[in-house]
Write a structure and sequence with these properties.
Blueprint: E1 23-29, E2 42-48, E3 54-62, E4 68-76, H1 78-81, E5 99-102, E6 105-107, H2 115-129, E7 140-141, E8 157-163, E9 185-189, H3 190-199, H4 205-218
Parallel strand pairs: 3-8
Antiparallel strand pairs: 1-2, 3-4, 3-6, 4-5, 4-9, 7-8
Helix pairs in contact: 3-4
Length: 224
């Protein structure tokens, strides 16, 4: 899979001093231990946002050769692109930092914080990012939700699987984000996804977890 070589240029540093898309919560805590003693007070920083949680979409099908495939999207992640290679214990591999393959995902809006709302979010993101339109009944939760970065943010990821027909995929409408332009969509055998995770070519943890859950539920393809 060839990632689009999209480069990021810093035009100006506009790091906010007030509230923005992300909100910094800084609190002073004490910890009470089982023996009744208390820790010294300490300060802890938490990241918050209005749309806190996200849905992760595992759109899959079995091809003519009997292999189960999942749809991935290319993406550009500025925080990863900004990572200094010198801070990595091992040499970074190609592709350049910030260019990644991931399962499509999207934020859950405050009005969607219900079981029905999660499915609504999943339908919207599937249409925006992959170009499929399917009914709500086609989605099935793929295991329990998880906290990907619990030391920093209380975001939960909700995983949904949906079987799709590749011939019915239209051009994704996207959400207007500058980082979604020129994104590529590929359908990859689940066995290849796991191999790329093992070698470090595919480095998105939610994608690996979701694909492993999918294989556990459905296997790697149709029975011989």
């Amino acid at each position: 899979m060839q990632l689009p070589r999209i480069e990021l240029e810093i035009v100006e540093d506009l790091s906010p001093t007030g509230a923005g898309f992300l909100r910094l919560i800084r609190r002073r805590y004490r910890a009470r231990y089982p023996d009744g003693t208390w820790s010294a007070p300490f300060v802890y920083d938490i990241v918050d946002r209005a749309a806190l949680d996200a849905v992760v979409l595992v759109a899959h099908y079995v091809d003519r050769d009997g292999a189960r495939r999942v749809f991935l999207r290319s993406c550009v992640r500025p925080p990863v692109a900004a990572r200094e290679p010198g801070r990595s214990p091992h040499p970074e591999r190609d592709p350049p930092l910030g260019l990644m393959w991931e399962l499509p995902a999207g934020l859950v809006e405050p009005s969607e914080q219900s079981p029905e709302g999660l499915v609504h979010a999943a339908r919207r993101e599937l249409h925006e990012e992959l170009g499929f339109e399917v009914g709500a009944g086609a989605f099935s939760e793929l295991g329990a939700s998880v906290f990907p970065v619990p030391a920093m943010i209380a975001e939960r990821l909700y995983f949904f699987e949906v079987t799709v027909e590749p011939s019915q995929r239209a051009e994704p409408v996207l959400d207007g984000s500058a980082l979604e332009r020129f994104g590529e969509v590929v359908a990859v055998p689940v066995t290849e996804v796991l191999e790329q995770c093992r070698t470090g070519t595919l480095v998105d943890s939610k994608t690996e977890l979701a694909v492993r859950r999918l294989i556990e539920r459905h296997g790697t393809g149709s029975a011989p």
